[in-house]
Design a protein that fits this description.
With 133 residues, this protein is of the alpha+beta class. It folds into two domains: 53 residues, no CATH class; 76 residues. Strand 6 and strand 7 form a beta hairpin. It is elongated, with a radius of gyration of 18 Å. The protein starts with a strand and ends with a helix.
Length: 133
Protein backbone atom coordinates (compact mmCIF):
# COMPACT_ATOMS: atom_id res chain seq x y z
CA UNK A 1 0.00 0.00 0.00
CA UNK A 2 1.45 3.34 -1.07
CA UNK A 3 0.18 6.64 0.25
CA UNK A 4 0.73 10.37 0.20
CA UNK A 5 2.98 11.52 3.00
CA UNK A 6 0.96 13.25 5.71
CA UNK A 7 3.41 16.17 5.84
CA UNK A 8 2.65 17.00 2.22
CA UNK A 9 -1.10 17.12 2.91
CA UNK A 10 -0.54 19.36 5.93
CA UNK A 11 1.65 21.75 3.88
CA UNK A 12 -1.09 21.99 1.25
CA UNK A 13 -3.71 22.82 3.87
CA UNK A 14 -1.38 25.44 5.41
CA UNK A 15 -0.77 26.88 1.94
CA UNK A 16 -4.52 27.15 1.38
CA UNK A 17 -4.94 28.93 4.71
CA UNK A 18 -2.12 31.33 3.81
CA UNK A 19 -3.78 32.11 0.46
CA UNK A 20 -7.10 32.67 2.21
CA UNK A 21 -5.39 35.00 4.67
CA UNK A 22 -3.84 36.94 1.80
CA UNK A 23 -7.24 37.16 0.12
CA UNK A 24 -8.77 38.60 3.30
CA UNK A 25 -5.89 41.07 3.68
CA UNK A 26 -6.15 42.22 0.06
CA UNK A 27 -9.94 42.47 0.33
CA UNK A 28 -9.58 44.72 3.37
CA UNK A 29 -6.97 46.80 1.51
CA UNK A 30 -9.25 47.12 -1.52
CA UNK A 31 -6.92 45.25 -3.87
CA UNK A 32 -9.33 43.41 -6.18
CA UNK A 33 -6.56 41.87 -8.32
CA UNK A 34 -4.98 40.29 -5.27
CA UNK A 35 -8.30 38.81 -4.20
CA UNK A 36 -8.90 37.45 -7.73
CA UNK A 37 -5.55 35.66 -7.55
CA UNK A 38 -5.63 34.48 -3.93
CA UNK A 39 -9.16 33.04 -3.75
CA UNK A 40 -8.79 30.50 -6.61
CA UNK A 41 -5.34 29.57 -5.28
CA UNK A 42 -6.79 28.93 -1.82
CA UNK A 43 -9.60 26.81 -3.27
CA UNK A 44 -7.31 24.78 -5.54
CA UNK A 45 -4.58 24.12 -2.98
CA UNK A 46 -7.21 23.43 -0.31
CA UNK A 47 -8.96 20.88 -2.54
CA UNK A 48 -5.66 19.14 -3.23
CA UNK A 49 -4.87 19.01 0.50
CA UNK A 50 -8.37 17.77 1.32
CA UNK A 51 -8.02 14.97 -1.24
CA UNK A 52 -4.72 13.97 0.32
CA UNK A 53 -6.39 13.77 3.74
CA UNK A 54 -9.52 11.95 2.55
CA UNK A 55 -7.81 9.48 0.21
CA UNK A 56 -4.17 9.14 1.28
CA UNK A 57 -3.74 5.66 -0.28
CA UNK A 58 -3.24 6.13 -4.02
CA UNK A 59 -2.17 2.60 -4.94
CA UNK A 60 -2.55 -0.77 -3.24
CA UNK A 61 -1.63 -4.26 -4.40
CA UNK A 62 -2.80 -7.68 -3.25
CA UNK A 63 -2.96 -11.22 -4.62
CA UNK A 64 -5.87 -10.42 -6.95
CA UNK A 65 -4.52 -7.20 -8.48
CA UNK A 66 -4.11 -3.51 -7.79
CA UNK A 67 -6.49 -0.86 -6.52
CA UNK A 68 -6.05 2.68 -7.82
CA UNK A 69 -7.75 5.94 -6.89
CA UNK A 70 -10.06 7.41 -9.54
CA UNK A 71 -11.25 10.97 -9.30
CA UNK A 72 -11.62 12.62 -5.93
CA UNK A 73 -12.53 9.62 -3.75
CA UNK A 74 -13.33 6.75 -6.15
CA UNK A 75 -11.42 3.49 -6.38
CA UNK A 76 -10.93 0.94 -9.14
CA UNK A 77 -9.69 -2.61 -8.78
CA UNK A 78 -7.64 -3.97 -11.70
CA UNK A 79 -6.83 -7.72 -11.82
CA UNK A 80 -3.22 -8.66 -12.59
CA UNK A 81 -4.16 -10.19 -15.96
CA UNK A 82 -5.60 -6.82 -17.14
CA UNK A 83 -2.32 -4.99 -16.53
CA UNK A 84 -0.45 -4.75 -19.82
CA UNK A 85 2.64 -2.80 -18.77
CA UNK A 86 4.28 -1.27 -15.72
CA UNK A 87 7.05 1.22 -16.40
CA UNK A 88 8.78 4.24 -14.91
CA UNK A 89 9.19 7.38 -16.98
CA UNK A 90 12.37 9.17 -15.90
CA UNK A 91 13.06 12.71 -17.05
CA UNK A 92 15.83 15.17 -16.33
CA UNK A 93 15.23 18.88 -16.51
CA UNK A 94 17.13 21.81 -15.08
CA UNK A 95 19.42 19.44 -13.21
CA UNK A 96 16.54 17.67 -11.45
CA UNK A 97 15.40 14.09 -11.96
CA UNK A 98 11.72 13.18 -11.88
CA UNK A 99 10.06 9.79 -12.04
CA UNK A 100 6.49 8.85 -12.87
CA UNK A 101 5.05 5.35 -12.46
CA UNK A 102 2.86 4.37 -15.41
CA UNK A 103 0.47 1.41 -15.17
CA UNK A 104 -1.14 0.58 -18.51
CA UNK A 105 -4.37 -1.44 -18.37
CA UNK A 106 -5.18 -1.14 -22.06
CA UNK A 107 -8.22 1.05 -21.43
CA UNK A 108 -6.57 3.43 -18.96
CA UNK A 109 -3.14 4.73 -18.09
CA UNK A 110 -2.68 5.30 -14.36
CA UNK A 111 0.15 7.71 -13.54
CA UNK A 112 1.65 8.21 -10.08
CA UNK A 113 4.40 10.53 -8.91
CA UNK A 114 6.75 10.07 -5.99
CA UNK A 115 4.50 12.47 -4.05
CA UNK A 116 1.47 10.23 -4.69
CA UNK A 117 3.29 7.10 -3.58
CA UNK A 118 5.45 8.40 -0.74
CA UNK A 119 8.44 6.46 -2.15
CA UNK A 120 10.35 6.22 -5.41
CA UNK A 121 8.21 5.03 -8.35
CA UNK A 122 11.10 2.74 -9.36
CA UNK A 123 10.77 0.85 -6.07
CA UNK A 124 7.01 0.52 -6.51
CA UNK A 125 7.40 -0.71 -10.09
CA UNK A 126 9.80 -3.45 -8.95
CA UNK A 127 7.38 -4.61 -6.26
CA UNK A 128 4.43 -4.61 -8.66
CA UNK A 129 6.35 -6.53 -11.32
CA UNK A 130 7.32 -9.21 -8.75
CA UNK A 131 3.73 -9.51 -7.46
CA UNK A 132 2.17 -9.58 -10.92
CA UNK A 133 4.17 -12.55 -12.14
Amino acid sequence: MWRVRRELAVFKILGALACAGLAAYWYAAGDVRGVILAVPAAVLVGAMGLRDLLVPVRLAADESGITVVRGFVGRRHVPWDRIEDIKVDVRRRYGRRSEMLEIDTGDDLHIFSAHDLGVSPTEVAEVLRRRGT
